Amino acid sequence: MAGFIIAIDGPSGAGKGTIARAVAARLGYRHIDTGAMYRALAWKALREALDLADEEAMAALAARLDFEIGDGVVRVDGHDAGWAIRTPEIDKAAATVARQPKVRAALIARQRRLGASGGVVMEGRDIGTAVFPDAPVKIYLDASPEERARRRATDSAHAVGRGPLAIREIATALEERDRSDRTRTASPLLQASDAIAIDTTALPIDDVVRQVLDLVEKRTSPGRRNG
């Protein structure tokens, strides 16, 4: 199946990272978390004491940064930022820069270059709508707000700097991020018209992975492509 692009979108806590990594491993594809690019940009901007609200400065930074994103690796200008970008401070900072059209344009261009050769499972919030609208496989994952908050509360990858936050507090933070993502003018979070929606609330990970792989098989079979 080398060469295909699998686009997985959805809000925080829906299971994008877990499912994308598992599908990529099963297919021997690369896994790219585009959300990490926005987080890494925000992290670098804070380190350089830049104004996150300055769209021109953020877009220029997005264009010049040396990113290494994929398969669990997050390096920015040679620095390992894998854990540093998973904090409440970076959550808010990333939401700020992600709303800026010029930033999104700069990072979407880079994401397209990363996935141009195919053989990639790319996850984010606008992969099937803006980054690769012609991707042959588009998935939209979602889950109930309560389940998404529970997952985020127990996810060690997002526990840095959180302390013993209550699930209710996390749910409030996720609600604010959802509102920001869905109301921004540049490629807002929404389900592509030709994406398959999967509610992961009560589904085991293996069941979701199996559904995605079945869809990949159907969408990328020779008969389907030629028909």
> Looking at the structure, what is the overall shape?
globular
Write the CATH architecture name: 3-Layer(aba) Sandwich
Q: How confident overall, as mean pLDDT? A: 90
Radius of gyration (Å)? 17 Å
Low-confidence stretches: none
Q: Would you state the CATH class? A: Alpha Beta
> Main sheet, how many strands, which sense, barrel?
5 strands, parallel
Helix percentage: 40-55%
From N to C, what is the helix and strand string?
A: EHEHHEEEHHEHEHHEHH
CATH topology: Rossmann fold
Reading side by side through the largest sheet, how are the strands ordered?
Answer: 2-6-1-7-8
Distance between the termini: 18 Å
- The portion of residues forming beta strands comes to 5-15%
CATH homologous superfamily placement: P-loop containing nucleotide triphosphate hydrolases
Question: How many β strands by DSSP?
Answer: 8
What class do helices, strands and sheet pairing give? alpha/beta
Number of folding domains? 1
Our count of helices gives 10
